[in-house]
């Protein structure tokens, strides 16, 4: 992460408090290089100093994230997978997004539907992109917001509590979560694969 982000994020949170948390999490969904793995742990550290309320900090993060997910949802709904893949391959380097990333997210969505939205909110690097296939496949907006809210609430609570416990070392959350998230993603893929295999086996044995 660039040095200016490390300096800018604490400044925004210090000046704008809960609104700053929500704003940063909103921007994190629009621009994936801004990491929630730093924003919410910093909020947790601020809570540990008695300057913020834990529940309100989490709530601000959830609201900002869900609102930030809506533009991607409507982009998917408006343009469709083929067009978005082309745009991602041409301009996605600025957002660290490629056409292949879009295809992977869409594949995940087809496997798990609404649960993919919930589960992928817990996986860095995928949590933002899953909004696109939800829009591409015209997932009902009410269901999208519900699953997004549940998954985001779990994610924000985990990160905020981690920052609360670690205190001034809240930055370690981002350092260690990156490698761990890869194993989480592999685990989720295995679970999805096992579920699909069992479903097919059940269908084969039906009369």
From TrEMBL:
GO cellular component: plasma membrane
Keywords: Cell membrane, Membrane, Transmembrane, Transmembrane helix
VTT domain span: 34-164
Topology relative to the membrane: Multi-pass membrane protein
Transmembrane regions listed in the UniProt entry: 16-34, 54-75, 144-164, 176-197
Location(s) in or outside the cell: Cell membrane
Alphabetical list of InterPro entries matching this protein: DedA_domain, VTT_dom
Major location category of this protein: membrane
PANTHER family membership: ALKALINE PHOSPHATASE LIKE PROTEIN (PTHR42709), UNDECAPRENYL PHOSPHATE TRANSPORTER A (PTHR42709:SF6)
Family recorded in the similarity comment: Belongs to the DedA family.
Protein name: DedA family protein
UniProt organism field: Romeriopsis navalis LEGE 11480
